[in-house]
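WARN no homologs supplied; continuing
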Amino acid sequence: MTATPKSAADKLKEQMALPLIAAPMFLISNPELALATCKEGVVGSFPALNQRTAADFEKWLVEMNDGIAELKKNNPDKKIAPYAVNLIVHKTNPRLEEDLDLIVKHKVPVIITSLGAVSDLVDKVHSYGGIVLHDVTNVEHAKKAIAAGVDGIIAVSAGAGGHAGTMNPMALLHDIREVFDGIVVLAGGMTTGSDILAAEVMGADFAYMGTRFICTAESAAEPAYKQMIIDAKATDIVYTSAVSGIPANFLKPSLEKAGFDAETLKKEGATAAKLKPIMNEAAAWKTIWSAGQGVVNIDDTPTVAALIDRLKQEHDAAEQKVIARKAAKPAGPKP
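OK structure emitted
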């Protein structure tokens, strides 16, 4: 009997200890954070543009490949997850082709594309066996990415950190599942192991967390940023397009500290015109800090290892609770 070919999702899960991807965060994610995450069986990632030049980006790729090889050598009985690199696929990214060539050269296992899905890029990544995930905020963008041949869709729902959508996660996931049976990753306000299980029960293959990993010891975020997340409530997250021209979620205190009227931005939301920056845009992202509504459930800064161990325990406990509830449910009347 011929074995059923494994799906891309199954192949990826086999390399992981938890169905979770740590999102690539601008100015925050780096090889230290990514390797610490991969070591614990969770996909770690970083944006290519977190390095200022392609040459420095290549150094990171070498560091990651060498680091993964070393982790596998030193931990033969442990699942070491692959890593991912985020590429901005947009005409405003002058390094796209150069960075893509380096990705192919170093055979980066997972590529996360944003702001555009291009079939040529997908073909190049597939040429060495890599997979492509594309982040979207609605089903129309998902359909374009599917047409380009991506392996997976990252459904970025309301409440996610950074550039986020406005759709309820259940509605967005259902919309995408109606047109796509490949990998689906769900993003938006998740911080616990039970959140990961909930995403799986809803039909996602993986959960996606960003803000929770900002508050880790290995994160490149400055201490004041981490403390602002710990102090924040969900109502301190402001969804606005005023900072970058694309709607995103930011911490209200950081907006106010930079001189913005946060309450006005909150009312205008995604309709806010991009303001003439109080500082240049690159500097703005350093001082106007992004986060998701999951801040309400973050109150510490553990190591990545401690955080993922906690997430695993929470995930298993939530799964056992569901099983126990199902077992305790009274049987229906006999026919």
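The radius of gyration is 20 Å.
OK
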